[in-house]
Please model this.
Amino acid sequence: MARFTTRVELHAASTTEDYDTLHEQMEARGFNRTIEDGEGVTYRLPWAEYNCDADNSIEEVLAAAKDAATVTGKKYAVLVTESKQRRRYGLTQVN
Model:
């Protein structure tokens, strides 16, 4: 299973509702806004950054993120990175 970190920026997003829509659409496509460390502790990712652990190609993950962003009706930018390792600092722990 591959691990992907995906960043989506909505251009000219006028309200937090634009990002609320994006978050809902990304979740519906298997993305989440948290990561878990090796000890089972869960952390919230930075704003509009998503995690996806899947048996998909990077092209499939990009396509899913683009589909989600399209629903907002905003122009957007997407960056998908497949990660072998992750390190974190300063992320908020989810209780």
The helical segments are 16-28, 58-71. The chain has a mean pLDDT of 94.
